[in-house]
Amino acid sequence: MANDDDTQALERAYQPSPGLGVAVSDPAVNPGVPPHRERMTDKDPKVERTAARTVYTLFYLSLAGSIWAVAAYMLFPIESGSLIDVRYNNLFIGLGIALALLSIGIGAIHWSKTLMNDKEFIEHRHPTRGRDSTREAAVQAFADANEESGFGRRTMIRNSLIAAVVASIVPGVTLFRGLAPFATPDNPQAGDPVALLQHTMWKAGTRLVHDPEGTPIRAADVTLGSAVHVIPEGLNELGHAGGLLEEKAKAIVLLMRLRPEQLIESEERKSWSYNGIVAYSKVCTHVGCPVALYEQQTHHLLCPCHQSQFDVTDHAKVIFGPAARPLPQLPIAVDDEGYLIATDDFNEPVGPSFWERH
């Protein structure tokens, strides 16, 4: 503890020096509200009408953008398999949606700046009580807002805004049409996601090849701790018109090599790996993102979208995250030339788990 001499020394050190004064400023004065400046729309009825026409024109332009986005979806169908259609589909749908949302935003801002009441006022705070007078005041506040904004009085602006907002939702709803094609007489399974994802290009004898080069993979070239992106042989020959993208989305695989003693394998799956090499679907069982991040030391696969983690040593079981089931395993072996081949297709549908499964 400090003695009395130390305490006195500290007090002297914090005393102001002789001759130095402390300036004390006057209390801050409220400058008040600046003088109100009238807008041109407040002074000139012609300018006001022009501003109103601008606002509802923007809202109708938004309506046109939404309609164009839906039309572009039908004019450039991605189901055609044409790469040009896919590009135009994304381009024109995006432009239509951008025009729809941007026009609503600009129109609403222009409305508030040029036509809505801009008189300054002070709202004094007071305790809130759940009385009838409070409810009546709330109703009156909505009525005042309607009067000040002109929402109920300016029918062209109101109707165009309602039409634009309703239409802006339509393109998003339309895009859901492409998630599950309808069944047709030529393709009765098109409306059944389980049937579509039950079978892929993998079959007995199909070689595992590098993605995207398409070169076969020798088992001896797969090093310990490596992770290789794999597709089935012959996939690249399909072309876009032949369903390349659709088949690749289902058949993509990640190949990894561990020490054989590190694998925990059930009796029925002991023949599905080769000398510590295992292959699992890259399609996450949560919402279908590509599972492509491999932690070499922990042997965990990580989905970058929602952080689901799978244990490669134990049948790719889920150890963390929202995924509901393990990644489907591709049974593999080696042919006479030492190349890795599949011995069968996946034994269950690939992809997300939220679809009903048989």
From TrEMBL:
Q: What is its main location?
A: membrane
| Residue span of region Disordered | 1-46
One Pfam match, given by its short name, reads QcrA_N
Q: Where is the Rieske domain?
A: 250-341
Q: The organism sits in which domain of life? A: Bacteria
For this protein, the record's InterPro entries field holds: QcrA_N, Rieske_2Fe-2S, Rieske_2Fe-2S_sf, Rieske_Fe-S_prot, Rieske_Fe-S_prot_C
Question: What UniProt keywords apply to this chain's record, in alphabetical order?
Answer: 2Fe-2S, Cell membrane, Disulfide bond, Electron transport, Iron, Iron-sulfur, Membrane, Metal-binding, Oxidoreductase, Respiratory chain, Transmembrane, Transmembrane helix, Transport
What is this protein called in UniProt?
A: Cytochrome bc1 complex Rieske iron-sulfur subunit
Q: Which organism is it from?
A: Microbacterium suwonense
